[in-house]
Amino acid sequence: MNNISNKEAMGETLVKMGKIDRDIIVLTSDARNSSSITNFVKELPEQFVEVGIAEQNLVSIAAGLAASGKKPFITSPACFLSSRSLEQIKIDVAYSKTNVKIIGISGGISYGALGMSHHSLQDISVMRTLPGIAVILPADRYETQNMVEALVNYKGPVYARIGRNPVPDIYESKKYGFKIGKAVTLKDGSDITIIASGETVKIAIDSASELQKAGIICKVLNMHTIKPLDKNAIIKAAEETGHIITIEESSIHGGLGAAVAEVVVQNHPVYMEIIGIPDEPVITGNPVQIY
After folding, report:
1. pLDDT tens for residues 158-191?
2. Catalytic residue among 8, 12, 55, 199
3. Does domain 184-279 fall into CATH 3.40.50.920?
4. 5 exposed, middle or buried (CB, 10 Å; 0-12, 13-18, 19+)?
5. Least buried of 4, 142, 173, 200, by fewest C-beta within 10 Å?
6. 149 in active site
């Protein structure tokens, strides 16, 4: 396992891209350390805005900067961005179609011991209901780097969620053809398709390896973009394997599994199983044990 978390990869890439494009402005709400953007603050202080613990203002200021031609990147805990500032995201970003990149850090259950107040299980469900906002969950450091670079030139609102802790590399390098809205086939198979996003992609790969020992050959899709969803990849997988399992670090209501099911039921109905966080408060503890 590498020792770099996705949020650290995000911070490093923002520094790199910020030196190239001076219109990039990074904003946070008293979360520069937890967002791993301290190097950005040190190296590009004139391109950084500290708003303080005021997530609503954070979003509105970013929207104003975008309206002025800047390329604002918000970094703040996902649990607060998707709840406290939802109205501002809905009106100032989604409805207004401002070019704001919202990065929710320490998403899902990665805060672990801090408990339910810091878990963000509803963010994906909420964000994908807002018209015009793309929703992305990178799987590892390489995908996070590719995502940040792509977002610099992507026109329009985006919500990206990344985790807090180091995760194993899924890819060997950045050179695998990342494209917003296009799933990546990590493994071909004919019996079952496992679709995952974000840091659960590693679970999907490991599960496929275990099932292969039992003679079940799985296709594995990394659905890093939940919106716009790669419908063609889902339909093709349903046709080829006849069974689909989704894995996500979110509520089972309205997230990746629900998005995939919407495509499946309308185009090529097959047996589906949705694995995620059930409809109950999440306990406090180690993220791996919680999941």
Report:
1. 999 998 888 899 998 888 889 999 999 999 999 9
2. 55
3. yes
4. buried
5. 173
6. no
